[in-house]
Design goal:
Diguanylate cyclase, catalytic activity, GGDEF_dom, Beta-Lactamase, 6-stranded mixed beta sheet, 5-stranded antiparallel beta sheet, 6 domains, flat
Length: 909
């Protein structure tokens, strides 16, 4: 709806009216006496221009398709049509003035008023806001505000459109989008967090979604990287069986079927993997099937476990039925409080029925078991079964039975706990017992013979359980036979790493892998090996033995056990070790000697030569060569049996001393050498040990030394006279180098050395080090007034006075430069340093050396700066000098004839 532009209270002024207005104005200016006529004409002009504003047309607004609200420039409502009343819930009378704002939602009122304010600035805004009805109903509207200029008391009109239904639809769509987003996030979370492969396909067999586990499985099985929108039918799987099964399963579920099936997937490696495949159709919100979902759960291990369990059960039943022993599987019966109250038969083999005379093949009650056990005088076995079930500890006991038909029979009763009961095994050991009793008489004699043996003897059966342990073994290993027989194995005496190393050695010799439970001693016994071994005593110490292993055979030449015979070889081993050490030491000594050492047999052949001999004689190896090769000038030797003795006689060498000989090396060079000879007995044979020392260089050195001695004696005679003079001159130079030439006290060079030394000493001892810088007040004026010679005399007196004021041996004074002096006071704290400086300053004043040009006194005075530190390693000692120098500057700056302590922030006179 369009409204005319807003008009002012007057018509627009045209050029004619403008001309009239100008003419009237000129008339006023030039004809002031005619002003009443002029006023009349002006009033007439204004009346002619004035026209009333029209009133708005209500009928047009009532017929409008929009809800309309008219307001003035102050946002006061002038009119609303019926559509506006329906939207807002307010009548025309209720909306007039400020009443229309009551219909607007409180949260939107401020925005609406801002919209009206913007209109006054020429902005035409559009806004969406809410009406709040008295019954709580909310109505959304879209508002556009337009100015109105052609109607009296109307500034603008607001046109509104109902948006409630549109907003409702938008809200519903937003909620639906949020729900879909949540469902998507939940789906992605489930897919990503699940270890089970999950995939979905659409109706065309194309993958719509899958998790990483599914992609990994497909790649591991078939080497295919699954991608979304890929069609399963296009994949060429390495296993045609797998492809056929998967296509058939997906086809069934895409036809609407839902099922779970266990299937093996083979993959490229042809290793079957068992999966539980769960297939279900996928529907949209309309109930239409849009695809299918497959979840795979790997049950390979559980399937293998089930098969192994089934096989184990079958083997268990077969073992029970085929066993020659009586076997009873007893299942525990518990009350409501899970307390054991009884047992009942779960499994019984045929021998079990025969042994207890159980004629019924049905599961007999526990009462029959108690009755049957009482017939063999072993009624207490029921209580034993209960204890084994509750504790889990295996029970095994041999028992002689005296019941009817079983007199003199021995049985081995074994009870082992299982998850829901116990297994009772009864073995007939009568024959073994009778054999043991028959051998009992002989065993005493046998034991006596074995106990008298000096070697430790240990016998085991085929299960490696100890059956015999003689007294020598008890003494050697610290165990009693009663502790070990039928209870332990020889592994108790051996170190596991050593036994493992021997197993590895046997495997290397045999060229094949031995079983994990292979026993090293049974293998050694079968191979008839005698070797050194290590035994471990009961107290933990180890010792070497010579161990011989043999098999024990019965009358049928069958192996029934193993016997080990051990002898302690600790003494022999110690001797061998000592001999080996001596040999190692001897070889090391020979290798390190610079002299030649040769061992020679009686036949004159060299047995061994040390590295020095090989180097001197230029041979790679001398073993097996004749000793005459090194002494060819001896001529032809006649003796063959004792050629070495003949060579030594020709050389003039014996065991009583050292002789000089001439040897020749491989290049033919003669070598003058000292030879010493020794004879040792090795296995009743003479071995000659020759030691040769090269004298060539020694002779040359002696000659050169003699010449040098003669020359030195001549030089020494000429130098001895001037040495004493030079020494005295050096001492004087050293003294003068560290003393100040004017004052006679230490100079700057000696101060630098002393400061470094005292700083290091204080840092080590943790003591304080004090330093004071002293300066003669106004000394330049003194020199200018009295002259430099008098000034030098003044400095000498001051230096002597400072030196006399120091009483400790470690205190040090030096001339630092010009009229400055420095004190080093080791082991002195701040109080001690102040006392020394005060004494120095006072004694200098008492010299009463006249100084009329001084501003502080009529005599020569000193100013001082004091610094005290605890030296630390790594800190420059001149930091102390700088601190004292700054303190001296403070003393001068604050009046002189005083001292200042660094860090004290005060002047002290």
């Amino acid at each position: 709806m369009q409204v005319a532009e807003c008009l002012s209270g007057y018509r627009k002024i045209g050029w004619q009216s403008g001309a009239v207005f100008i003419a009237l104005s000129l008339l006023l200016v030039f004809h002031m006496l005619q002003w009443p006529v002029y006023l009349f004409l002006c009033a007439l002009f204004m009346v002619l221009r004035l026209r009333p504003k029209p009133v708005f047309d209500k009928a047009a607004y009532e017929a409008s398709a929009f809800a309309v609200l008219l307001s003035d420039s102050n946002a006061q409502c002038c009119y609303v049509n019926e559509k506006w009343s329906l939207l807002s819930g307010l009548s025309l009378q209720e909306a007039l003035g400020d009443g229309w704002l009551l219909a607007i939602h409180p949260e939107d009122q401020l925005r609406v008023l801002e919209m009206y304010t913007a209109t006054q600035h020429g902005v035409l805004p559009a806004l969406e806001y809410r009406f709040l009805h008295t019954d709580g109903r909310v109505v959304w509207v879209a508002s556009s505000l337009l100015p109105v200029s052609a109607c009296a008391n109307v500034a603008c009109q607001e046109l509104l459109t109902d948006l409630t239904e549109l907003k409702k639809q938008q809200t519903e769509r937003s909620a639906l989008l949020v729900e879909q987003r949540q469902l998507k996030e939940e789906l992605e979370s489930i897919l990503s967090s699940s270890n089970d492969p999950i995939a979905a396909v659409d109706m065309d067999f194309c993958f719509s979604v899958f998790n990483q586990s599914y992609a990994n499985l497909f790649f591991i099985l078939y080497g295919i990287k699954v991608a979304r929108q890929d069609c399963l039918l296009q994949y060429k799987l390495s296993s045609e069986e797998d492809r056929s099964n998967l296509v058939a399963f997906w086809g069934r579920v895409l036809l609407g079927e839902s099922f779970v099936i266990r299937c093996a997937l083979h993959g490229d490696d042809k290793v079957p993997r068992i999966f539980d495949l769960s297939f279900s159709p996928q529907f949209n919100f309309s109930g239409e099937q849009i695809g299918a979902i497959n979840v795979l759960h790997d049950v390979t291990l559980s399937a293998q476990t089930e098969r192994a369990l089934q096989t184990s059960e079958e083997l268990f039943k077969a073992a029970i039925q085929s066993s020659v022993d009586a076997i009873y599987v007893l299942e525990a019966i518990k009350d409501v409080n899970l307390m054991l109250i009884d047992f009942e038969f779960s499994e019984v083999n045929q021998n079990g029925f025969d042994f207890l005379d159980l004629h019924s093949q049905s599961t007999p009650p526990a009462a029959q078991l108690k009755s049957a056990l009482s017939r063999i005088m072993y009624a207490g076995l029921f209580d034993i079964c209960s204890e084994v079930f509750l504790s889990g500890i295996k029970y095994q006991q041999e028992k002689e039975c005296f019941s009817s038909g079983k007199d003199g029979c021995w049985f081995l009763f074994s009870v082992v706990a299982i998850s829901n009961g116990v297994v009772l095994t009864v073995s007939d050991i009568s024959q073994r017992k009778r054999s043991e009793l028959a051998l009992a008489a002989f065993s005493g004699l046998q034991q006596a013979i074995l106990d008298s043996a000096g070697s430790a003897i240990i016998v085991t059966d085929l299960s490696n359980t100890i059956r015999l342990f003689n007294r020598a073994a008890e003494k050697m290993l610290g165990y009693q036979a009663s502790e070990l027989i039928a209870k332990e194995t020889p592994a108790l005496f051996h170190q596991a790493p050593v036994a493992k190393a021997l197993i590895d050695e046997f495997e290397s010799e045999l060229g094949e892998k031995l079983p994990d439970d292979a026993d090293v001693f049974s293998i050694q016994a079968k191979l008839y090996i005698q070797r050194d071994w290590i035994y471990q005593h009961r107290d933990g110490h180890v010792f070497p033995v010579e161990l011989t292993m043999n098999v024990v055979r019965n009358q049928n030449d069958e192996i029934t056990g193993y016997m080990g015979i051990a002898n302690d070889i600790s003494v022999r081993k110690l001797a061998e070790i000592k001999l080996q050490q001596n040999e190692s030491h001897t070889l090391a000594i020979l290798d390190s000697l610079h002299d030649c050492v040769l061992s020679v047999g009686a036949d004159g052949l060299i047995l061994a030569a040390n590295p020095a001999a090989l180097k001197i004689f230029s041979y790679d190896n001398l073993s097996g060569k004749s000793l005459s090769l090194l002494f060819p000038r001896l001529g032809k030797m006649n003796s063959q049996q004792d050629l070495a003795q003949e060579i030594f006689v020709c050389l003039g060498v014996d065991t009583q001393g050292v002789s000089e000989v001439i040897a020749i090396n491989r290049e033919g060079v003669e070598i003058l050498m000292d030879m010493a000879l020794a004879i040792v007995e090795v296995e009743d044979k003479h071995i000659y040990i020759i030691t040769l020392h090269d004298l060539t260089q020694h002779k040359l050195d002696e000659q050169k030394m003699q010449e040098t001695i003669e020359e030195l004696e001549a030089v020494q005679a000429s130098l001895s006279g001037s040495h004493e003079q030079l020494s005295q001159a050096n001492q004087e130079l050293s003294r003068l180098a560290h003393l100040d030439g004017l004052t006679g006290i230490a100079n700057r060079r000696l101060f630098d050395q002393t400061l470094v030394q005292e700083w290091a000493r204080a840092a080590r001892s943790g003591e304080c080090l004090a330093l004071a810088m002293l300066d003669v007040d106004y000394f330049k004026r003194y020199n200018d007034h009295f002259g430099h010679q008098v000034g030098d005399e003044c400095l000498k007196h001051v230096a002597a006075t400072i030196a006399s004021a120091l009483h400790r041996p470690g205190d040090f004074v030096a001339r630092y430069g010009g009229e400055e002096f420095v004190l080093i006071l080791p082991g002195t704290d701040q109080t001690g340093a102040v006392q020394v400086v005060e004494t120095v300053l006072e004694q200098v004043r008492h010299l009463s050396i006249a100084h009329q040009t001084s501003d502080v006194a009529k005599v020569v005075t000193l100013s001082a700066g004091i610094a005290v530190l605890l030296p630390l390693q790594g800190i420059d000692p001149y930091y102390l000098v700088q601190a004292a120098d700054r303190a001296l500057y403070q003393a001068k700056n604050q009046g002189r004839n005083c001292y200042f302590v660094a860090g004290a922030n005060r002047l002290t006179e």
